[in-house]
Amino acid sequence: MVSETGGNQSVERASAVLNAFTLGRPSLRVSDVAAQVGLGISTTSRLLATLESVDLVRRDPVSQLYELGPAVLTMAGIALNNDPIYRQSRPVAQRLAWELGLGANVSVRRGAELFYLLNVEGQLAQKSFSLMGQRNPLHATGMGKCLLLGVAAAQRAELLGPEPLHSFTSHTLTTFEALDADLAASTERGYAKEVEELALGRACVAAPVRDHTGEVVAAISVSGALSAIALEEREAELGRMIVEAADTVSIGLGYLGPVHTPVQEAK
């Protein structure tokens, strides 16, 4: 009988092997995986063989390189379909992408990063890959700024780290003073925007999604190339549409709007 410690170690090693496969390196040799997870070649080879037997990885018959297997897709589908934010936002994002031709995205916060739950591409923003499961920084994205609205100002420095914040382009906000001012403006107008702060030539408009408690639990956005999103001419229209989309998802999650406490008359 395998000990509890040994069983835990096996699970941790298997998890490390699966996490060795990334968007940048989706296909790996045994030696690549071994170097990534810090295990010997023979141990790594046995782990990969076990994972292959349950379809968590597969080996290309020509190149003999390993990649993630179909069982991962099955589990990802189950997890997504069991997620209430995904279920509520999927038809909303699909409608936005269809009507605007832009990319429509939904994300949640995972620590100091945003995590894509959903990515639908319109005809003006087609990609050959999905963003689902990928991560991006909070301070340099429209959705990330919306998710930061759910974090107290005093906690943002602890969450994001010391200044200067990481710069991706010359437009990235790298100080908390600039970020706080941007978040205040986002709160005022009801949506956040990002123009070439993460990548040159791209922009997005995003709005926060709230649950039944009123907490910000997700963000939804439309994004695309500067020429496609035409933010200078369409910001008011896109802002209205993304706020309406966020409200639709929020209502589906049980959000009823802010609670107003009646002012009591002085006696």
From TrEMBL:
GO terms for molecular function: DNA binding; DNA-binding transcription factor activity. Residues 71-255 form the IclR-ED domain. Pfam families: HTH_IclR, IclR_C. Gene3D superfamilies: 3.30.450.40, Winged helix-like DNA-binding domain superfamily/Winged helix DNA-binding domain (1.10.10.10). Residues 8-70 form the HTH iclR-type domain. Keywords: DNA-binding, Glycerol metabolism, Transcription, Transcription regulation. GO terms for biological process: glycerol metabolic process; negative regulation of DNA-templated transcription. InterPro entries: GAF-like_dom_sf (IPR029016), HTH_MetabolicPath_Reg (IPR050707), Tscrpt_reg_IclR_C (IPR014757), Tscrpt_reg_IclR_N (IPR005471), WH-like_DNA-bd_sf (IPR036388), WH_DNA-bd_sf (IPR036390). It comes from the Bacteria. May be an activator protein for the gylABX operon. This is Glycerol operon regulatory protein. It comes from Amycolatopsis acidicola.
